[in-house]
Design goal:
Blueprint: H1 2-29, H2 33-37, H3 46-49, H4 53-68, H5 72-107, H6 114-145, H7 148-166
Helix pairs in contact: 1-6, 4-5, 5-6
């Protein structure tokens, strides 16, 4: 029993560290996945929660610009990244709809075509992996233009968010 409890603690630590990495990457990305996670707090973010991705991305980039006090060059980099992520997110949305349409059409049938659904989902997972790699590249690109004091502000912000969300 003690061994089982220890293995549960170890596995939860492993998954927690993976969550931390994903969380931090998402916030650094500024837009895209960050928007769907809803990392920004306050009542104002609620009005953007179901807004089109362009509106959400714009709101978040303004918030980051203000919080990190970005200079003009950093704003240009952030705007470029935001636009690239919005474009990729639109592409991902289309493939998600395709899977749901296929699933809906199969629900009407006598039997689900497991092979076809698995192929569709595997294809989607490959696209998600490529998207994740793209987002991490964009996080790296944004991180390179930050000054040390901005990185510290970002660290403090992430640490606060992480502590808030890990208590739940």
């Amino acid at each position: 029993m003690i061994e089982n409890q220890n293995s549960n603690k170890i596995s939860s630590k492993k998954s927690f560290s993976k969550k931390n990495i994903l969380w931090i990457s998402s916030i650094l990305l500024v837009v895209g996945v960050l928007i769907s996670i809803g990392t920004c707090s306050g009542h104002q973010h609620r009005k953007y929660h179901h807004a089109p991705i362009e509106k959400r991305a714009e709101w978040i980039s303004k918030k980051i610009t203000k919080k990190l006090e970005l200079d003009d060059n950093q704003k240009k980099v952030l705007d470029k990244i935001k636009n690239e992520i919005v474009q990729k997110s639109r592409e991902m949305r289309g493939t998600r709809k395709l899977i749901f349409k296929e699933l809906l059409s199969q629900v009407k049938e006598d039997e689900l075509d497991k092979e076809k659904l698995n192929k569709l989902i595997n294809s989607q997972q490959k696209k998600i992996k490529k998207f994740r790699i793209f987002l991490i590249d964009k996080a790296h690109e944004f991180h390179k233009v930050l000054k040390p004091e901005q990185k510290q502000k970002l660290y403090n912000f992430l640490e606060k968010k992480l502590n808030r969300h890990s208590k739940k």
